[in-house]
Structures are given as structure tokens and as C-alpha cells.
Amino acid sequence: MDKVVASAVEAVADVPDGASLAVGGFGLSGVPNVLIEALYERGVAGLKVVSNNCGAMESGLAVLLAAGRIARVTGSYIGANKEFARQYLAGELEVEMIPQGTLAERLRAGGAGIPAFYTPAGVGTLVAEGGMPWRYDGRGGVAVASPPKEVREFDGTEYVLERGIRTDFALVRAAKGDRHGNLVFAKSARNFNPLAAMAGRVTIAEVEELVEPGAIDPDAVHLPGVFVQRVVALTPEQAADKRIERRTVRD
To answer: Signal peptide: which range, if any (predicted)?
Structure first.
């Protein structure tokens, strides 16, 4: 039952080239930076990443992206990540853009054993009709486009069929975790982390505070340990390393 491993490098030691990863975080919040750095150090490449965005401010997944280690991204947001946009438009990176709520539900559904579901999000758009550029050819043309999806009517409203997502591994960051893998996420870090953790066949969690089993009130658990296979305890310095993407202040 003790799922704690000695280091982040040991925790990701069996992640192979070409693996699919569900990665928690939103912007700079709740990003498993230490596990991502460990993957970078190992030199793993050809990764297929499922995450809301692909890192920012040269941190998080942006580290792997800049090194050319990511082959495909399923996400909702490119934002101000210029390298993400450059690789996509140059045909170096395959990108499946989907509505943010749909991404969240596809991860949750995959983790819950639901193969597919219907949603109204995307009906009447390229999301349902197909033709969204997944990969450009580097010359302004589209090399790979999204296929059309099934659309079905329920009670007079059209819905598009979306597939649940399962990945080989999941990387998440929690504020607190015990040795059994029960996790608690702090504030906005409780964004895509629980959903990403559910979607991974092997889920690895880096935790800012490691406690003994029983120290977390069962009512306070955000993600039960049944979804987590490995736990990495961060050092105080690693736990305190939290960046701010945009600082807004008043005089």
C-alpha cells in the first residue's frame, strides 16, 4: 500500500518514448514541474500529451516542447506560448484543439470507464463537422485534419459524440498526499489534476506535503488513492517554487 518512491527520476523511469501522458495544471497553477523536469532529464521523446495547455514562461510542459520532445497535444488553449504556436503552424507538432469543458469530461469519462458521451458543445462547428487542422504541412496547407464526429438528436437538441480519454501515464501535483495515494489539491490547482489522474493507467503524483495514512480526513480527500500508483514527496524548496504568470497590482 505504500506508494512512495524515492525520487521523481525513479517515478518516471519506465515512461518510454512515444508514451501518452495526461498532465494536470492550468497556466502555472498545479503543474507537476518536478516530474516534467525528470522526464526532460531522461530524454524521453515523441510524447503524446493531453493537457489544458502546453506550459508557459518556459516552465512545465514548455520545457519538453522547446526540446522537441512532444509529438502531439490534445488541449484547449495555446495562449501566449509562442513556441507552441510556431511548432503547430510549421507542421512540427500535431494539435487537437477541443472545448475546455469537453476536455475535462473526456478525461473524467475515461477514468470512470465510460467510452464515449454526447455533449452539445461543438455542434454546428468544425469540432463536429471535421476539418480542423490537426497538423499543417509547413507551407500553409493542412496535412492532417480532424474527422467528422457522430451527431445525434435528443429531445429536439443535437449533441456530438466525444470519446473518453485514457493515457499510458498521468502526471499531477497535489498540495497534500498520504502514502496510500489519497490526494488533496489546493484552490485553483484543483483544476485538471483530479481528472488527469483518473485518466492515467499509471498515475504519478508529486505532493508538496507527504503525510501518513489517516492524517487526511476522508471527507477532505479530493482524489482517492485507487487512482494513484506512485507518490513523490517534494522538498520544501520544490514545494515553494510557484510562479505567477501575470502579476497585477494597484498603486
So the answer is: none
